Amino acid sequence: MSSPDLIATCARLRPTADLTDPAAAAKFTLRRLARRYQDLDQEIAEYDAELSALATQAAPEVPPMGWTA
User: Could you tell me the pTM of the whole model?
Assistant: First the structure.
């Protein structure tokens, strides 16, 4: 399973309400971490797009270095 697939799978986990159960606690934690990862990944993509636009505006003659819009 690829990393994006694993993150998506963990984000869909449905832990039971009994967090004293180790399996439920693990599912709860994995779900929270996966959703946080997805949120941060989206935020990074938004910042990359903004930075790319600003860099192009400031120096249109210079090709982008490492980020994509």
Answer: 0.78
Q: Phi/psi at 14 (nearest 5 deg)?
A: -125, 85
Residues 24 and 15: beta-carbon distance below 8 Å: yes
User: CA-CA distance, 3 to 29, in Å (whole number)?
Assistant: 17
Instruction: Tell me if 7 sits within 8 A of 38, measured CB to CB.
Output: yes
CA distances (Å), origin 54, targets 32, 63, 69: 33, 13, 11
Q: Is 42 exposed, middle or buried (0-12, 13-18, 19+ CB in 10 A)?
A: exposed
Tracing tokens 């938004």 back to the chain, one arrives at 46
Greater confidence (3 vs 60) lies with: 3
